[in-house]
Task: structure prediction
Amino acid sequence: MNLDQFLEKSEQRAYQIALYATRNSDEALDIVQDAMMKLAQQYSDKPSAEWGPLFHRILQSKIHDWYRRQNVRQKWRQILPFLSSSDSNSNELNNNEAINDPIENAPELKNTKPDDKLEQSRAMKILNDAVQNLPQRQQQAFLLRNWEGLNVAETATAMNCSQGSVKTHYSRAIHSLRSLLEDHI
Amino acid sequence: MSDLFERKLHDLSQQTFDSQLNTINDSVKQRLRQSRQQAIAAIPQHSKANANAIVINFPAWLSTVSTATAFASIAIVASLLWLQPEFNNESNVSPLDDISILTSNDEFEMYENLDFYLWLENEDSAG
Result:
């Protein structure tokens, strides 16, 4: 696999992870673009087996940077409220546009019974909303472990934290989701 | 996955997040494609060969073994060439003789009774 093929395979999942974090399509695209650029410029000569962990690490770093910038902006908005009026319109979250209803797009549900389908679609909707509202580190730990299939050590490398921190973030995410989903799955 | 809930949650997560990939619209896909092309174009010149190559990562020990095998093969071939008996390229049989041997009926009779001649030879050596 060459780098172009690797990025083609990874770009949509990376976009989706960034979209969960930012809830804004343009911001997510910028993050993925920066991550792809950095991987190509700095790590293209690494063996292809290392591109996956490196790409996750860069992507998480970019998402973390984005959060920090958002926090700084938020503080300035609180100090200087007149700055927020124009800025908030452009960055305002539009959930309907950014993260779509998962029920309409789940091919797995087409062959299930109507009652099961309804219950499962409800569970998917709850999960989708809940993951969007998780704190950033919990959300990313959950996505990396549960969707990307990374183990604790790989997740720790990607998130640039200890394995203990990953376990904490992940278990807190599971705890939150359990309280919301236990009756639905 | 420690319990049943986590296993179910894992399956549900896969379905939910995979389904989200189907919602990505064409303009986003196009921008992702453009970003990828820009990233590929930005690869430093000295790294391009590796990034574009389809790299198969063999284990390190395999290269040692293959080098040793290559040297051993060369040594065997060289010793065989060195030790082989001298081959006489000059044949005493002319092409015309070949034709006369091939067309003679006597030889074919011998081959037809080959079992008998083998038995006879064994008998002679035993007797």
Observations:
- The mean pLDDT of chain B is 78.
